[in-house]
Amino acid sequence: MKIYTRTGDKGQTSVIGARVGKDDARVEAYGTLDELNSFVGQAAAILAKQTAGEWEDLREQLMIIQHELFDCGSDLSYAVPEADKMKVKPEMTERLERWIDEYGERTPPLEKFILSGGSEPAAALHVCRTVCRRAERRIVTLAREQPCPDEVRKYVNRLSDYLFAAARAANAILGFSDVEYERSAPVFRRRS
């Protein structure tokens, strides 16, 4: 089977229900999710080099997230989303929230902005977080211009929070302290 079709040689591609430019807002949105998925895979590969045990949950979560990012891309690929065909469900976002809360309990309180980095796994997860934020911006642009499933936007918003929490947890597991941005005012408050 050949993987090339030549149908996109003139800058057009197919989404479900339409033919659009490769720079269409819909293609930008799901393309950025695809890029994010690659970075999540890279972060998982970095974690695979760590000693097993406390990393198993995080690696398993990243695998689940990779599948769910494909679900997000699938939902975004509909020119006109059809509710009964959407794969992203509220339960997926709720699960991310549970994971965020679990990581929040394992990390020191945070008051100020922090610099991305610390350990290699944390740095990789911070890259994922920033690409996720860009994907979210692309989805917001899409939603302003064309039909867009709300659940995808909610999931991606929460996913960036998850990636932040996971990066902090990775540093804590490895004994690295988060480095506060030195000119940051206190911006975070613990919610009860």
Automatic annotation (TrEMBL):
Keyword ATP-binding: yes
Enzyme class of the recorded protein, top EC level: transferase
Reactions catalysed: 2 cob(II)yrinate a,c diamide + reduced [electron-transfer flavoprotein] + 2 ATP = 2 adenosylcob(III)yrinate a,c-diamide + 2 triphosphate + oxidized [electron-transfer flavoprotein] + 3 H(+); 2 cob(II)alamin + reduced [electron-transfer flavoprotein] + 2 ATP = 2 adenosylcob(III)alamin + 2 triphosphate + oxidized [electron-transfer flavoprotein] + 3 H(+)
SUPFAM superfamilies documented for this protein: Cobalamin adenosyltransferase-like
InterPro entries in the record: CblAdoTrfase-like, CblAdoTrfase-like_sf, PduO-typ
Enzyme Commission number(s) from the entry: 2.5.1.17
One Pfam family hit: Cob_adeno_trans
Name of this chain's protein: Corrinoid adenosyltransferase
